[in-house]
């Protein structure tokens, strides 16, 4: 007789099949590709909107107007990066207005009886208008000062007003806030998407009855671990692919400045992601084992979906205080903590509490999930509830026939 | 040797399997027969450990059976099941790997089983794309894929055409030549042709078990006499004989005192005879007797 083989390492065989099946499934690859495209598109579009070199043309009819426009170019660039303003000298008011109407000029700067007017077609870009409105007085003032032999610098002494904030936010606040929302949405989407995949793959094995052969060949725990770890690796791989794609997109569109402030948050995100995902994964597997058919999954996965949905809502609507507390709770921490890290500093003790609670929850959820999975996997005919499955006797319960 | 002792399974208040005991000896093909609902599938699932018995034990070579031992059994459940959207070859390699074979051995074994069933060119097809008969062959291959120490097959022949049945029995005789093999079936003619031992289950209890030959001998022996055109009714008057049926020149009788060796002489003395033969009682009749 041959020696009975050991059951060690079998979960790897199971995990490898799960991964191979997923990587060959068109729907899996397409949904992954859609996410990558969405993130890259978001970065490219925002880069295009923010970083696009902006050149406004202003029609002028006199030398003062032309000098004012040249001064406005410097002011506009300070207001919004990569913005230049060019003067276009035309013959008279009529020509200037025609240029604005036809779109050849973005605006016209025309002398009036007591100064200048900015003429636009239906709208004047606010940055341009602001720049012109500051440039005109400065230009005219310095011309007047020269005419009357007045020392402009002396005249202006003591007029400068600056601004100082007592509680200044970090730089790149926009990028940080955007990153924190991306963290929330990304974990929500990935955890629900991959969680449903785990549940579906369990239910499919029940539906096709192949589970009876599997159960005779492999300890049920090895099946569970294979599934959980296989899909966790896939989920993490997807996050890494997204991260790399996002970095490439940021570099390609010249927005590398955004990377610096969110890099530490990214590192923590990976840690919280792995813990949060693994904690939930056995619950998804249990949900799959409770169902007899795919249609049952809608209701058996409801608890896991709620665990994700509540922090998701909190992340978007709750105030600072609530967020701080919720960000230390398991699962919710994966969505909220990296975002808080991206937006500013988080006290170390809060990080440690969040990590400890997540690990604790992971251990508990995995135990409960495994218990349900083991007891309901071989039960066919009808859907079970979580409570019902937990009360099942400690044996492999079959189809009653 | 695989042995069940007082296996009992209760579902709710229904005793589906009631103190069932039997042995499956190595090198003997053991048939497991019984009407629908007699408890065959439940018993086999308890043998395989996918269902816990309410009471009773399963043992291997006299020792309580272990998970590791069971993993080396070939099992074909009553409810067929494989991965419908997985390639046939990959699927078999996967099951072999689950049973602890190396990738290389798994590939070799898969190739040889597919060849045996004439499915070599379907290895890269999805299981779903195969005919039902071919899917059944793959299911059998999945049960035989690893290094077996015993086989437990629930209705392995259902859904197979006669040619496939022959190919399957050849394979079983080869693969399980010195292993305990238990299979259940409704097809009594097949059981009769294949089995060395028989276990008959009725309403959750074993009503007969043992070597097929022994079981036959327990039943009453019958003889068929065919005369040369003459009406066989006169045989009713023969001493030490009880005629159960006469049809023209053919009679079916059992001996109630006449020694078997004297039957031919007694008939030939009075008639011209074409045939005197001992009738082997078909299994179906034994089955009917013990389960009624």
UniProtKB/TrEMBL annotation, chain A:
Residues 26-366 form the ABC-2 type transporter transmembrane domain. The keyword Ribonucleoprotein does not apply. One of its GO terms (cellular component) is membrane. The chain crosses the membrane at residues 27-49, 178-199, 228-254, 266-286, 307-329, 349-370. It is found in: Membrane. It comes from the Bacteria. It is a multi-pass membrane protein. Pfam families: ABC2_membrane_3. GO terms for molecular function: ABC-type transporter activity. Keywords: Membrane, Transmembrane, Transmembrane helix. PANTHER family: ABC TRANSPORTER PERMEASE, ABC TRANSPORTER PERMEASE PROTEIN NATB. This is ABC-2 type transporter transmembrane domain-containing protein.
Automatic annotation (TrEMBL), chain B:
It holds the Pfam family ABC_tran. SMART domains: AAA. It comes from the Bacteria. GO terms for molecular function: ATP binding; ATP hydrolysis activity. Gene3D superfamilies: P-loop containing nucleotide triphosphate hydrolases. Residues 2-228 form the ABC transporter domain. Keywords: ATP-binding, Nucleotide-binding, Transport. InterPro entries: AAA+_ATPase (IPR003593), ABC_transporter-like_ATP-bd (IPR003439), ABC_transporter-like_CS (IPR017871), P-loop_NTPase (IPR027417). Belongs to the ABC transporter superfamily. This is ABC transporter ATP-binding protein. It comes from Marmoricola endophyticus.
């Amino acid at each position: 007789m041959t020696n009975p083989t050991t059951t060690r390492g079998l979960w790897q065989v199971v995990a490898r099949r799960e991964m191979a099946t997923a990587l060959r499934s068109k729907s899996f690859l397409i949904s992954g590709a859609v996410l990558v495209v969405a993130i890259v598109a978001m970065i490219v579009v925002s880069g295009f909107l923010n970083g696009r070199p902006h050149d406004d043309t202003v029609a002028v009819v006199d030398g003062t107007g032309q000098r004012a426009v040249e001064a406005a170019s410097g002011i506009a660039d300070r207001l919004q990066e990569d913005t230049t303003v060019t003067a276009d000298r035309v013959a008279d008011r009529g020509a200037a207005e025609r240029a604005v109407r036809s779109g050849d000029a973005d605006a016209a700067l025309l002398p009036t009886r007591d100064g200048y007017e900015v003429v636009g077609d239906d709208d004047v870009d606010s940055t341009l208008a602001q720049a012109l409105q500051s440039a005109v007085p400065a230009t005219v003032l310095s011309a007047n000062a020269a005419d009357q032999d007045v020392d402009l610098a002396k005249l202006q002494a003591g007029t400068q007003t600056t601004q100082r904030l007592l509680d200044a936010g970090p730089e790149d606040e926009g990028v940080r806030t955007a990153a924190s929302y991306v963290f929330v949405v990304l974990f929500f989407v990935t955890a629900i998407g991959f969680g449903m995949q785990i549940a579906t793959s369990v239910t499919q094995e029940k539906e096709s009855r192949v589970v009876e052969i599997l159960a005779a060949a492999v300890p049920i725990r090895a099946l569970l671990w294979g599934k959980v770890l296989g899909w966790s690796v896939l989920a993490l791989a997807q996050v890494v692919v997204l991260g790399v794609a996002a970095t490439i997109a940021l570099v390609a569109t010249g927005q590398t400045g955004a990377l610096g402030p969110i890099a530490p948050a990214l590192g923590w995100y990976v840690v919280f992601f792995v813990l949060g995902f693994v904690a939930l994964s056995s619950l998804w597997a249990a949900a799959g084992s409770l169902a007899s058919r795919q249609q049952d999954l809608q209701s058996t996965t409801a608890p896991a979906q709620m665990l994700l949905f509540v922090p998701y809502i909190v992340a978007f609507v709750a105030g600072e205080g609530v967020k701080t507390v919720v960000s230390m709770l398991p699962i919710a921490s994966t969505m909220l903590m990296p975002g808080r890290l991206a937006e500013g500093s988080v006290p170390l003790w809060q990080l440690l509490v969040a990590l400890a609670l997540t690990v604790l929850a992971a251990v508990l959820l995995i135990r409960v999930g495994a218990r349900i999975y083991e007891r309901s996997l071989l039960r066919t005919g009808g859907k079970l509830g979580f409570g019902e499955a937990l009360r099942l006797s400690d044996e492999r319960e079959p189809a009653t026939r | 040797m695989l042995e069940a002792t007082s296996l009992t399974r209760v579902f709710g208040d229904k005793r589906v399997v009631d103190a069932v005991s039997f042995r499956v000896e190595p090198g003997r093909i053991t048939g497991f027969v019984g009407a629908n609902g007699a408890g065959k599938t439940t018993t086999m699932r308890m043998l395989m450990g996918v269902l816990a018995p309410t009471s009773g034990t399963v043992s291997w070579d006299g020792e309580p059976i272990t998970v590791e031992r069971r993993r080396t059994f070939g099992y074909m459940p009553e409810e067929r099941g494989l991965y419908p959207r997985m390639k046939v070859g990959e699927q078999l390699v996967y099951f072999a790997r689950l049973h602890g074979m190396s990738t290389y051995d798994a590939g070799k074994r898969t190739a040889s089983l597919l060849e045996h069933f004439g499915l070599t060119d379907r290895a890269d097809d999805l299981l779903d794309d195969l005919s039902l008969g071919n899917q059944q062959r793959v299911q059998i291959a999945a049960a035989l894929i690893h290094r077996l120490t015993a086989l437990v097959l629930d209705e392995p022949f259902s859904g197979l055409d006669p040619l496939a049945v022959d190919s399957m029995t050849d394979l079983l005789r080869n693969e399980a030549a010195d292993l305990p093999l238990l299979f259940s079936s409704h097809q009594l003619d097949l059981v009769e042709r294949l089995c060395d031992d028989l276990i008959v289950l009725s309403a959750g209890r074993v009503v007969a078990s043992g070597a097929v030959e022994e079981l036959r001998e327990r039943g009453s022996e019958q003889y068929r006499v065919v005369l040369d055109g003459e009406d066989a009714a006169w045989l009713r008057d023969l001493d030490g004989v009880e005629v159960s049926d006469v049809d023209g020149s053919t009679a079916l009788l059992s001996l109630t005192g006449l020694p078997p060796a004297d039957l031919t002489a007694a008939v030939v003395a009075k008639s011209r005879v074409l045939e005197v033969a001992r009738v082997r009682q078909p299994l179906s009749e034994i089955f009917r007797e013990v389960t009624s």
